[in-house]
Amino acid sequence: MDLAHLVLAHTDPEHIARLARKLSDYSDVYIHIDSRIDLTPFVAAVASLDRVRLITTRFPSEWGGWNAVEATVALMREALAEKCYDRLSFLQGLDYPLKGTQDITNYFCTHRNIEFIRACNISKSSDPYFYDKCRYVWFPNNRDRVINLFSRTVSKIMRGADLKTRSGVIVDNNEKFDVFWGCAQWALTGHCAQYILEFYDSHPTFNRWFYYAFPADELYIHTIVFNSPYASQTTHGGPEPEAKPLERWRNLHYFESATNESGTVFGEHDYDRLRVRPELYVRKVTTEASSKLLDRLDADTKVTLTLPPNEVGTHTPGRHMQCPAENTTSMAVDFSAARTKVAPYITYEVVDVRGVTTRVHAAAVTHGGQEPRVSRSPLCGVTKALRVTRRRRGEDLNTVTCCRCRRRLQKAGVL
Q1: Whole-model pTM above 0.85?
Q2: Contact 247/220 with Cβ under 8 angstroms?
Q3: Whole-angstrom distance, CA of residue 364 vs CA of residue 11
Q4: Are residues 226 and 275 both part of a single domain?
Q5: Which of 128, 185, 287, 408 has the fewest CB atoms within 10 Å, i.e. the most exposed one?
């Protein structure tokens, strides 16, 4: 499966580097950095990651404003211009995977045609918690402090007096669209994402309506999807009944609201309850508050295997082999990196191990006088996960690949 993660970020370059490194083990990563933020530390943070791209089209992403939607659309456009992905998963900069590589990829492969997005119809709601998002005019996009204060005051007065200045329905090109609201994070198929881009380009009046809506990032994508043929393919097969608060709309992310607008930031003390959550990702975490938590979560999906060189070196490429593993709790699927060499053994780090023995998709590795080397040619996600990254200057190239990549590289004359 061709998977891409789209990341909307504005802070914490160190965490963005850690997140990108984790995601790029099994997907391509596209990152948008708020245009008001210096890009330099982010460029330096991800410079060594081949599958990570900082997009050049940038917007000042106001919280809940229209520019956040434009930034999201720019991420989708950049990704789909590069490749026809099977799945695009949208994250924000302070998110992190809760599950291991194979758990996430298997989940998306198993639910290949599901649009992971949830929403309820707020156009028909009689509850102000819902209808104030589509019946009032909001001004979240003004960056001038004086104008912003005035706009917020006007919005507060209108809501306090219940001055509904909008019908709650969008009209564009003689079409009527009910408005839908849900959690900002989603994971959509490539076909659905392409539909959204085409809709964005052909409905300027529809887009303009969201400039005065709040929070636009919890409304725009949802309204397009749930007014489209893809509505029946969403997480629950269509719109859901109204529910509050926002935690009731968790999709693939686990998050908690706090007393302030920013939400709960998780730390190491949250480890025991987070590790058993069914969601794929967690929000929010930061370098300062969450590093120890993330270290423990990462450790849950890794185990060290020590293999005799002859056992690996003589194995048929592309076949599976059984390897004993210590303290295994989940299923092994790939090599992440060769960590150390202690003759006559080489120690590998393996991701996601289950059971007493580990079933590993093995690769051809040459041992002995030469260190394993890796081809710089484009490789599939399986091979990127398998490849051994230890190398020594001036030695012959030894390639670690799956069978499919090996045939392709041989045909190209690389091997």
Answers
A1: no
A2: no
A3: 41
A4: yes
A5: 128
